[in-house]
UniProtKB/TrEMBL annotation:
Protein name per UniProt: Response regulator receiver domain-containing protein
Positions of the Response regulatory domain: 3-117
UniProt entry keywords in alphabetical sequence: DNA-binding, Phosphoprotein, Transcription, Transcription regulation, Two-component regulatory system
Signal peptide range in chain numbering: none
SMART domains tied to this protein: REC
One of the GO biological process terms: regulation of DNA-templated transcription
Molecular function per GO: phosphorelay response regulator activity; transcription cis-regulatory region binding
GO CC aspect terms: cytosol; protein-DNA complex
Species annotation: Actinokineospora terrae
Superkingdom in the source lineage: Bacteria
Residue numbers bearing the 4-aspartylphosphate modification: D50
Listed InterPro entries: CheY-like_superfamily, Sig_transdc_resp-reg_receiver, WalR-like
Length: 126
C-alpha cells in the first residue's frame, strides 16, 4: 500500500487530510512536526508538508529529504497559505514536486497526489 507522510501542525486540518487520503486508498502517517516527518522518511512514497511547522519549515524538511539518497526522488507536496511568487520559487528551489495553496479542495489535493504517484509508478493502494 502506498504510504504518505502528512506533516501539518493544525490538528483539524491534519485529521481531515488523513481521513481524505485513507478514504482514497492510501496508508497515512500523520505527524505535527518536521522532525517527526524526517523520522518517518524511509518508508514513505510521498510527503505532504505544511510550509509552517513548529520546529522547522516544510522547505527545510524538503531540502533535507532531497539531500538523502533514500528520499531524493520521493515526491514532496508543500501546503501553504503563502501565495507570493517568492514563496512559490522558494518551494521549487527546495525541491518540492508540487505547491498547493490553502484553502484548497480536498478532492483536488487527492487528485494531484494521485497524479504525482502515478507518474512515479505508485497507484493508490499498491
Amino acid at each position: 500500500m502506498t504510504r504518505i507522510v502528512v506533516a501539518e501542525d493544525d490538528p483539524d486540518l491534519r485529521d481531515l487530510l488523513e481521513f481524505k487520503l485513507v478514504q482514497a486508498g492510501y496508508e497515512v502517517t500523520a505527524v505535527s512536526t518536521g522532525r517527526e516527518a524526517l523520522d518517518e522518511a524511509e518508508a514513505a512514497q510521498l510527503f505532504l508538508l505544511d510550509v509552517t511547522l513548529p520546529d522547522m519549515t516544510g522547505l527545510q524538511v524538503c531540502s533535507r529529504l532531497r539531500a538523502e539518497v533514500a528520499t531524493r526522488d520521493t515526491p514532496v507536496v508543500l501546503l501553504t497559505g503563502h501565495t507570493q511568487e517568492a514563496d512559490v520559487e522558494a518551494g521549487r528551489l527546495s525541491g518540492a514536486s508540487d505547491y498547493i495553496f490553502k484553502p484548497f479542495s480536498p478532492r483536488d489535493l487527492v487528485d494531484r497526489i494521485g497524479a504525482l504517484l502515478t507518474a512515479g509508478g505508485e497507484p493508490p493502494g499498491r
